[in-house]
Amino acid sequence: MAQMATCGYAAPEVEKTHHRSRKLCLRLNEKRRLMRVLWGLHTCYVNAGELIPALELSKEMRQVAEALGDAASIVESLHALGTTLAFMGDLPDAREALEKIFTICPISQYEARGSVFILDPCVTSLSMLARLLGLMGFLDDAVEKADASVTLATQLAHPPSLAYASFWVAWVRHTRGEYSEACLHLETAMALSRTHRDAQEHGQSDGYAVSIGATLWSHDDGGGSPAGPRI
Question: How do residues 170-180 score in pLDDT, each as one tens digit?
């Protein structure tokens, strides 16, 4: 994780380190540690836009997780599979994988475990589900999932996950034409990102704030559009 933070998620040296760790885990039959290594390598592939190897890796994660029989590992493997399928445009299968997470691990029973991961996988799965449902035209369901992601991140007291969830609530609200609501959630995401120095989320939030500001301006009826998010 330190190398990913300093060199970038998709840096060649990061990928090389993950591959070496994977070989060591396989040689020592360390399946539990292998899951974390595969997660890191999957993150590397996704951020590099290498979705075909990311998909193959997510399938390997599913096999390892099922062999472990550990609920947390199964959640992480389904998250990897669902997000990869979503980025590849396979929305129905992505939705199926992500919804399976909450059959295995209902939100009401979820407890975050100590993790090397920056973002909580259940929070990000809810956010991704919200995006998928929005793109598929189920906007009311999208709002429900997006709001649930914020609630869960708040309960977990995990600021990076809350910034992420708030950003995607803003996206859903914007998609529904609820621009003022979107601005409020974006301001929350930007404030959290600044406070906790999440450069990636801060950059995304600022960029999206500009987009929403432009949309608000385009919807001005002459009486002055609502104030956009403060960048």
Answer: 999 999 999 88
